[in-house]
Amino acid sequence: MARGINKAILVGNLGNDPETKYTQGGMAITKISLATTSVRKDRDGNPQENTQWHRVTFFGKLGEIAGEYLRKGSQVYVEGEIRYDKYTGQDGVEKFFTEIVANEMQMLGGRGEGGGGGGERMSRPRQESAPQRQAPQRQSAPPPADDGFSDDDIPF
Amino acid sequence: MARGINKAILVGNLGNDPETKYTQGGMAITKISLATTSVRKDRDGNPQENTQWHRVTFFGKLGEIAGEYLRKGSQVYVEGEIRYDKYTGQDGVEKFFTEIVANEMQMLGGRGEGGGGGGERMSRPRQESAPQRQAPQRQSAPPPADDGFSDDDIPF
Amino acid sequence: MARGINKAILVGNLGNDPETKYTQGGMAITKISLATTSVRKDRDGNPQENTQWHRVTFFGKLGEIAGEYLRKGSQVYVEGEIRYDKYTGQDGVEKFFTEIVANEMQMLGGRGEGGGGGGERMSRPRQESAPQRQAPQRQSAPPPADDGFSDDDIPF
Amino acid sequence: MARGINKAILVGNLGNDPETKYTQGGMAITKISLATTSVRKDRDGNPQENTQWHRVTFFGKLGEIAGEYLRKGSQVYVEGEIRYDKYTGQDGVEKFFTEIVANEMQMLGGRGEGGGGGGERMSRPRQESAPQRQAPQRQSAPPPADDGFSDDDIPF
DNA sequence: TTTT
DNA sequence: TTTT
């Protein structure tokens, strides 16, 4: 039986465009870097900015939506589960990382599908930067196998 | 300005007794290991248990309360902020870790102030704190019992 | 498109046994009265108890589980949606009410599966339902105990 | 002792400009109407929009900020406590209502400080529509007593 | 009454 | 790396 609640609730902005990959079975896995900034007073009473960068992963249908609609700078509400994981790096050393596995996502007003740093955002056709973001069921062939996670031993 | 929401909501059980330290200024810092277990179906439809161990830190007054009342096995509700941090180990290598900095805590029924590791736990009588565990009708009057389902004009 | 988040997170105790009905299609609808008590200081700095009674509704499978396992006094975690509704009473007057439509429920330690309509609940020994309350190390291995505070190079 | 969690988490849009009043002691009380819209499939599988209108109340400093920065159409994150209350109407009948007493607020991207029905929003000086929104401490005299809640017997 |  |  379930025994516990493990819930993260985040509202933040993407630091980069999402990255979407597909499993061999065709399931989308989209990862984003999400900044949440808060302010507290330090010991001297001065406001101190504090930014946390969350690695958020979206699977399946949510992964397709996130990959298609989110962009660098987008503001988004994410709800998910905190998961602590590890992998062995190329140097043979175990590395630990934490990710939020999203189960709910909501785009928020504003920057929406716009883009980030450059001025090219409005002119950049969606397909240009997102060939790997197409829904796999729309392709007759599965995505290349090297789009998987094994390519560089680093899961994020 | 604050820009974002970073909130963790956890209900779980302590894997060990809390560990409390004090800063030179006398502020309590209590750390616990909190297990949240959930169940999902794997690809074969079989229920699969999944336990995440959260490092939760309580500062100040909350740290004193957590250190005093929580014990190995205690069930607790925790709300806090997810914080990603790092330190340099004795081997000179940077290590990353994630912690939940609690800003709200609530002991849940059951194991309560009982405890774990030591034998001293039973010496603190359960009844001391038990009155608060009585049925909530002592907190205030419950809603009238007659607004039940049998009166079909009333939906609650 | 979805436009918004409407989420209630409650931890409280039942004021009465649940009431379960079934639709003609056989779907369970269980309703409970849930007390959440908090304390704040009044203007004079004295702690003031404040209890809110929530009407919580569970549909379908969740309704069956809630009806079967919850009892007067049970402590429970509920997550759901806040819904404002109205009905016309027998006196022809529109009545407004608010309910929480649950989409997640988690029984909490303590009164747990005990319960039942009558006064026999206390006669059912605590241990009967206690196995699930055992220390979580049976769910999986707890983190190593030696990463305590005494090793000052390690912050957790 | 606190005994329970009573938390609402909302992301929605204001249906109207906020309304701010001041207590005789000079504390701001701001009320908004917040729409949260979600979609579910009805029994026929067709998406069905569902909008809930929340009455949200902000006290004190938060009330001043909400009154000053929120506008009709603004998207906002609100966290607060669900409170069930009643008042006796002019017809002598008890009326029940539910409100969310906010303890955290976060403006979200987009409509921001804009507002208003027409296109004049960017040209509309703040003071024009918000004389009663000025922070009370900036006035030497307290706000008129009839700005209180007794004026029309209706608390929202 | 909002929003998409 | 985001955002205000």
- Quantity of strands of chain A, as a count: 6
pLDDT averaged residue by residue of chain A: 77
The largest beta-sheet of chain A arranges its strands as 1-3-4-6-5
Largest interface comes to: B-C, 53 and 51 residues
H-E string of chain A: EEEEHEEH
Assigned CATH architecture of chain A? Beta Barrel
- Helical stretch tally of chain A: 2
Query: What assembly state would you assign to the polypeptide chains in this entry?
Result: homotetramer
Estimated radius of gyration of chain A: 17 Å
Structural class of chain A: mainly beta
Principal-axis shape of chain A equals globular
Report the span from N to C terminus of chain A.
31 Å
Poorly predicted ranges of chain A: 110-153
- Domains of chain A, number: 1
Largest sheet of chain A: 5 strands, mixed, barrel
CATH class type of chain A: Mainly Beta
- Work out the strand percent of chain A: 35-45%
Helix content of chain A: under 10%
What are the SSEs and their pairings?
4 copies of one chain form a homotetramer.
Chain A: E1 5-14, E2 19-22, E3 28-41, E4 47-59, H1 60-69, E5 75-88, E6 94-107, H2 126-129
Parallel strand pairs in A: 4-6
Antiparallel strand pairs in A: 1-3, 1-5, 2-3, 3-4, 5-6
Chain A binds 2 DNA strands through residues 12-16, 33-37, 51, 53, 72-75, 109-111, 116-117.
Protein name (chains A, B, C, D): Single-stranded DNA-binding protein
Pfam families (chains A, B, C, D): SSB
Motif (Important for interaction with partner proteins) (chains A, B, C, D): 151-156
